[in-house]
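Write out the 3D structure for:
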Amino acid sequence: MRSSLTRLQDDLRRAEDSLALLLGQWRPDAAGEPEQLIEFWEGREAQARRLYELEYGARSSLLVFQSGANNVAPVPSTLIKPADTEEELEEPEEPEEPVLRKEGNPAAAYRVVVDRDFLSEPAALRALDERLAAGHQVRVVDQPLIKLVIADGETAMVQVEGGRSMVLGPPVVLLAVELFESVWRRSRPYLREDGDLSPMDRRLLQLMLSGLTDAATAHQLDTSPRTVQRRLRALMDVAAVSSRVQLGWYAMRNNWV
């Protein structure tokens, strides 16, 4: 079973690498390339604004890969912030930073896949909890993801380098849609609502399965490494296993995660 899972992960990684390589080789001045298929966006602010336009311009659906080390729209910047005070409202209206996602697009159904690097980011779990509260579907994979947003199945934005993204139109966007659906089928739910486990234990298992250290897991859960170790030991006792690897397999077979 483990070898099959490893092959699936390798296949997905190769598919992502191939897509990124293909897109990276395209240039807008390439001979014979239809201009309407591809747009190039350079720089943090330009990418963030185009990402905002795609998200809030979507009419029905948004498919998203979220990965760590995102310098276009860092996780803490996408969280809902408290209402401005009167003093803050008196400040100049011209912001220094681009407008980023706050509450999401209510017209669109979100399906979001996050990876291990994303789960390591500050406030990642809070961001995912906000997505769940907003009705978004969230799933997790252990292999690294490219940064990807697909609006209505018609337009995709792919970050091929840290400071460079491409926006794809039909029919090229179908490559990105196929990649997303392939990853979605092989991902696992972020939090299941069925079963007897507490939400804290489900989060703990997700972080363990994603390979975070006890210290990193404790930081995400706002607790101590000793508490993490104690809770994992208790879960191992419930599952009647003697190692974390066995606990991970038990959790996945028995729908704990």
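The CA atoms of residues 5 and 11 lie 10 Å apart.
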